[in-house]
Amino acid sequence: MWVRGPTGITHPRPTSGVPAPRGQASVELLAGVPALVLAGLLALQLLAAGYALTLADGAVEAGAMAMAAGRPAKPAVRQALPGWARHRVDVAVDGGELTVRLRAPSPVAEVARRLEVSSSVWVKRPADR
Predict the structure, then answer these.
(1) Sign of CA dihedral 59, 60, 65, 67
(2) Which of 1, 82, 88, 125 is deepest in the core (most CB within 10 A)?
(3) How far is CA 35 from each of CA 10, 42, 92, 108, rounded to the nearest angstrom?
(4) CB neighbours of 17 closer than 8 A, spacing ≥ 6?
(5) Distance CA 5, CA 8 (A)
(6) HSE-CB of 11 using CA atoms within 13 angstroms
(7) Which pLDDT score is estimated for 10?
(8) Average pLDDT of the chain?
(9) Coil, strand or helix at 97
């Protein structure tokens, strides 16, 4: 291939003898997209787990307030949660200890089973005073 220089003279373009890579960017893009999607899903899953922990903390506080007032904790815990979380919660009362376990939402069922957050509190009931 001939190239015109700044003086107007044409001369052959220097080549290294190695053909220019073609399609390399497309291959790199196709290889990078799955990694990017996986990183995005992981970030969303971590956000969902953090949100579930915040919900469990609020629910255990509502249950503790109910226990301190002499009312049952389980209905108060369930009422403090949004609708989607009510079927994902386990409430345990052992004496004055209240524990709330909540499974975080996940598109993968196995991850949801393994990714469980919990919050506990100890309450002095009115009868214990």
Answers:
(1) positive
(2) 88
(3) 47, 11, 40, 18
(4) none
(5) 5
(6) 7
(7) 73
(8) 86
(9) strand
The residue count for the chain: 129
* Tokens 């995005």 belong to residue: 40
CA distance 86 to 101: 11
What's the mean pLDDT in 38-60? 94
Residues 6+ apart with CB under 8 A from 103: 52, 88, 89, 112, 113, 115, 116
- What would the two tokens of residue 4 be? 């015109």
Min mean pLDDT across 17-31, 54-68, 71-85, 105-119 is at 17-31
Q: Is the pLDDT of residue 94 over 60?
A: yes
Q: Which residue has the tokens 């969902």?
A: 48
According to the model, what pLDDT value does residue 27 have?
Answer: 77
Distance CA 116, CA 88 (A): 9
- List, in order of start, the domains of the chain with CATH numbers: 31-128 (3.30.1300)
Spell out the residues 6+ positions from residue 59 whose beta carbon is closer than 8 angstroms to its own: 77, 78, 80, 81, 89, 100, 102, 119
